[in-house]
Amino acid sequence: MNLTDSHEYRKALGNKMARLRDLRKVTQMDVAYAIGYNSTGMLSKIEAGLSGMSYEQICKAAEFFGIHPAVLMTPQEYTDDELQMIVNLMKLLKDQSNPHYQSIKSLLDQAAR
């Protein structure tokens, strides 16, 4: 069985989608449009863990939420604080002109050793 077909994976994906949507304070319609749906019906099924998403849709959702697609593609659960930290870190990595970029990069380099 493909991992993305498993119930556990769909539940984890749906949970992350709903929590990221709440963290961003956007509606299901906002997310649905961003990933290519013209209504909230399918997104409701995804968030409930009843349906999965294609790789293309995962990439669109990741871009919309400002995260790497791997965050959505893995079955790992994250706390709201961890999800917010991932979003913030991705913002920082995309903006090397941020005055804190070098400090954070140094800390990450040290932590990875």
Describe the structure.
The structure is a single chain. The mean pLDDT is 90. The protein has seven helices and no strands.
For the structure shown, list the relevant keywords:
113 residues; 434 Repressor (Amino-terminal Domain); 67% helix; mainly alpha
- Count of discrete structural domains: 1
Structural class: mainly alpha
Low-confidence segments: none
First CA to last CA: what distance? Answer: 36 Å
Proportion of residues in extended strands: under 5%
Which value, in Å, is the CA radius of gyration?
Answer: 15 Å
**Main beta-sheet strand count, sense and barrel state:** none
Whole-number mean pLDDT: 90
Say what the CATH topology is.
434 Repressor (Amino-terminal Domain)
Shape descriptor reads globular
What is the CATH C-level name?
Mainly Alpha
**CATH architecture title:** Orthogonal Bundle
> Secondary-structure element sequence?
HHHHHHH
CATH evolutionary superfamily: lambda repressor-like DNA-binding domains
What's this, in brief?
With 113 residues, this protein is mainly α. The chain is 67% helix and 0% strand. The radius of gyration is 15 Å and the shape is globular.
Layout: helices, strands, pairs:
Elements (H helix, E strand, L loop, with lengths): L6 H18 L3 H8 L5 H7 L7 H11 L3 H5 L6 H15 L6 H12 L1
